[in-house]
Amino acid sequence: MPIITTSSVNKINDILTSTQKTIINTDYKNYKKFSKHVTSINGYDYVKDLKIFLKESLKIENDSLLNYCIETPMFIYSETSKFLINKKGYYSDQLIQKETNFILELRKAIFEIKNKNKDVRNLYGKIKEEFKYKKFNFLTS
Prior knowledge:
This protein is mainly alpha-helical. The protein has three domains: 1-38, no CATH class; 41-96, no CATH class; 102-139, no CATH class. It has seven helices and two strands. Strands 1-2 form a two-stranded parallel sheet. α6 (102-117) runs antiparallel to α7. 6% of the residues are buried.
């Protein structure tokens, strides 16, 4: 299925009148104009559109796949292809996980301790832990 990026109304009309299925990336003005006539996905409300696309267009009822695609929309094509090829043996990629920003989490904890708990010993431990990460920060930059 070809993927075409265009904002030309004439080119979009030509594509829509053809019998070939195509994915069209276009601007919001054209999206609003053509969304009532074709199956479309709005980038602003992609979760709802993604559920409809997977369940109605591709006839996929796998909740694991749906949740994975919502969390990582950049893998929709590869994951749906993998599922459609091997429905019984499908499993989502477990290696990709959200990274944790340790310094940010430590700073949030420090802020909370300063404003709520006033536990000096715990505050000192958190500041000391933050210092360890900041000390070696130049290695990752």
